[in-house]
Amino acid sequence: MPSRPSSGRRRPATIAAVAVAGAVAASVWFTSGSASAGTLSGALYRDPNTQVVKWVAANPNDSRTPVIRDKIASQPQAHWLSSFNPSTVQSDVSTYIGAANAANRIPVLSVYEIPNRDCGGASAGGAPDFNQYQTWVSNFSRGLGDRTVIVILETDSIALQTCLSASELAARNQALTTATQTIKAGNANAKVYLDGGHSAWNSASEQANRLRAAGVQYADGFYTNVSNFQSTSSEASYGRSIISALAGAGVPGKRQIIDTSRNGGASGDWCADDNTDRRIGQYPTTNTGDANIDAYLWIKPPGEADGCGYAAGSFVPDLAYSLASSAPYPPSEPPTTAPPTTAPPSTPSTTPSPTPTRTPSPTPPSTPSPTTPPPATGACTAAYQTVNSWQGGFQGQVTVTAGTSAVNGWTVTWTLASGQSISQVWNGTLSVSGSTATVKNASWNGSLAARASTQFGFTANGSASNPTLTCTSP
User: Fold this and answer.
1) Which of 207, 300, 298 is nearest to 254 (CA)?
2) Over the stretch 210-244, which tens digit does the pLDDT of each residue have?
3) Catalytic residue among 92, 156, 220, 273
4) HEC profile for 202-227?
5) Which of 47, 70, 92, 118 is catalytic?
6) Which residue numbers delimit the CBM2 domain (predicted)?
7) 118 is known as an active-site residue
8) In this structure, are strands 411-415 and 436-441 parallel, antiparallel, or unpaired?
9) Is residue 292 scored above 80 in pLDDT?
């Protein structure tokens, strides 16, 4: 891989596990609600088939699993398409989009197919030529459906151009312009963002000029900080400068997306494979509180290697644990080892804050009371707790505990009180029949060792009550 200055970014090296095989299970996780700023509104889709989710499911007894599970696997991340597959991409994308739509969540797709991507570096590859690239993009666009989808188009394709001749650059810019227009024509509700580099790379004016040449006028905006570690405040300031420069050049109304997957610690050199000073940043959300910023996303999946110490795109548990170990837990989603001690807000917290503040506490609250007797051999029990309430709704938390023998899968059922309806569930899969609510384990938290526990949570409409729960295990 060619050497680059530390300010010269680096590609996300996410080249593994990109095609969707078969139907995708629709797990509902607490991510984000209606946005208070920007042009996006809604919760983001969490793919239940990511590398990190599969690792968690396969390693329930690993000491690193609780941290990786609760702080990384629980979060929505971009789904990368980096395998050149023009004959199957339409069906692959259609399957993925269908799963997200069924869950009523916004999918995030990262397209990484541009010819000569990464200038032949650790993530070299892409389409063989621009004609075949356009064929791939056309097939991709036909699988996007007609609902909101976020498309992160070709990381580093605009900020990294050192390997291109003038004619090659002109061809790339035309390809990006055409790709944007093709995607928009395929799905009018697709939100397309072009490569904005990051705040320690090209100047804002230079990046704005490059974006204009690549057709940002046809896109919704640009994204920054993919696979880099610049602070959110620095990226927001950089984005405002790009937006201002674009507006001054006759391209107004563009907005930014910031990758916050690994910017919670030190900035600097692009590669995190052998660094321990990196941290996950703000949790993914469309609720940014900034009219210039449409979303904070995890575009580069935390724990997947950059290519300098491990194979590019491979999942490395030690790296994931290092990124997450000292980070706060997701807002309104307490760790499975101990409930939070922060005071509940006076209004419903159905949307995580862009600045997480919840931290684990070793001291459990004094009020939880199990609604079922102690677990018996081979069985499981479930204990309910209301952790937050507001006018017209509440947030509940259920702790599932195995008996004296391990269990492999669990199901919790209860009867909803009059006027109650469940709006969201995380860490489990919900079904409702009449007034009976049923939550089954997610793919990663169904196997429990003897006496071990896990938790799921939900938000509901109506007044909080103390339900009688029934837990069963196959």
Assistant:
1) 207
2) 999 999 999 999 999 997 889 999 999 999 999 99
3) 156
4) CCHHHHHHHHHHCCHHHCCEEEECCC
5) 118
6) 373-474
7) yes
8) antiparallel
9) yes
